[in-house]
């Protein structure tokens, strides 16, 4: 009897030993995702009401400086409560109520550009995280960031800025057409919007180039966060590359497949909100192979009303 118990104990010990010494790296790494959005600075407005009075102050009782017809545009100097301070032809300042106009991005402002050679990127804010060269501690699942807050599920990390690096796009990010994976993701996004009675997003290739750079940057610098150690926040990054917008958003994900990344994003309220926002008009998709998740995905959304 003792001999049988001894043999049974030996076998049980071997089973436990084998299970405990298996290499955890052999297990597939699950996908992750995160989202963020922000309103941009309004630089130009278009009058949307049939009759709009530009007033001397921020009050409906203030003297009228001029009457403006529908579709008249003004350069915006500032926002004051429910009014836009605008520059008038005689270089004086007038006030237009927000309810009688809308922010726009005119064609003259709609020009993406790479940062000038030799210029240093804007110094980004940093958040506690890993140091360069270490793998970020990101668990399975997804998290979402709205505004500047971070939810408990978002364990994205960021590293410190390297001022010796310049904001130069990688040579393989400047293709003028979408890759098959990028096109697949755009189609999935627009199918989801169609199912919710929303217009399709137009592909903005300048924004796509920025999204590709962001995905490659996350792989090269081994982080998963909206804040790049090189380019700063997605909004800093868009500014550096000359992307103009009224509102912008970003979804990032790491996943083995386009469908897997899309499903993860659509099943999270923050990411879904960006994808299905009626305010966004254009999208840029950047997908790069690499990293512990297999592929890195960056979706950048902007609104460019005319």
UniProtKB/TrEMBL annotation:
Gene3D superfamilies: CAP, SH3 Domains. It holds the Pfam family CAP. Residues 114-134, 147-164 have a biased composition (Low complexity). Residues 186-301 form the SCP domain. Residues 165-180 have a biased composition (Polar residues). Residues 1-24 form the signal peptide. InterPro entries: CAP_dom (IPR014044), CAP_domain_YkwD-like (IPR014258), CAP_sf (IPR035940). It comes from the Bacteria. Keywords: Signal. Residues 104-180 are annotated as: Disordered. NCBIfam families: spore_YkwD. This is SCP domain-containing protein. It comes from Anaeromicrobium sediminis.
């Amino acid at each position: 009897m003792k001999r049988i118990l001894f043999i049974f104990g030996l076998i049980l010990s071997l089973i436990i030993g084998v299970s405990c010494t298996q290499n955890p790296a052999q297990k597939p790494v699950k996908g992750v995702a995160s989202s963020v959005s922000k309103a941009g600075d309004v630089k130009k407005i278009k009058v949307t009401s049939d009759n709009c009075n530009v007033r001397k102050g921020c009050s409906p009782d203030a003297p009228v400086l001029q009457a403006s017809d529908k579709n008249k545009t003004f350069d915006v100097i500032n926002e004051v409560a429910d009014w836009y301070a605008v520059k008038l032809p005689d270089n004086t300042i007038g006030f237009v109520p927000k309810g009688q106009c809308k922010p726009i991005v005119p064609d003259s402002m709609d020009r993406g550009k790479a940062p000038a050679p030799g210029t240093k990127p804007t110094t980004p804010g940093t958040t506690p995280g890993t140091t360069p060269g270490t793998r970020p501690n990101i668990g399975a699942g997804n998290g979402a960031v709205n505004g500047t807050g971070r939810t408990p599920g978002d364990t994205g990390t960021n590293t410190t800025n390297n001022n010796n690096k310049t904001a130069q796009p990688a040579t393989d990010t400047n293709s003028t057409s979408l890759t098959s994976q990028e096109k697949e993701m755009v189609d999935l996004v627009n199918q989801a919007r169609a199912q919710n009675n929303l217009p399709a997003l137009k592909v903005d290739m300048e924004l796509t180039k920025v999204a590709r750079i962001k995905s490659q940057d996350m792989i090269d610098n081994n982080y998963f966060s909206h804040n790049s150690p090189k380019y700063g926040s997605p909004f800093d990054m868009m500014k550096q590359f000359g992307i103009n917008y009224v509102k912008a958003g970003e979804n990032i994900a790491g996943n083995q497949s386009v469908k897997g990344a899309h499903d993860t994003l659509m099943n999270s309220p923050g990411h879904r909100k960006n994808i299905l926002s009626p305010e966004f008009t254009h999208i840029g998709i950047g997908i790069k192979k690499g990293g512990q998740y297999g592929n890195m995905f960056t979706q950048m959304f902007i609104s460019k009303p005319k």
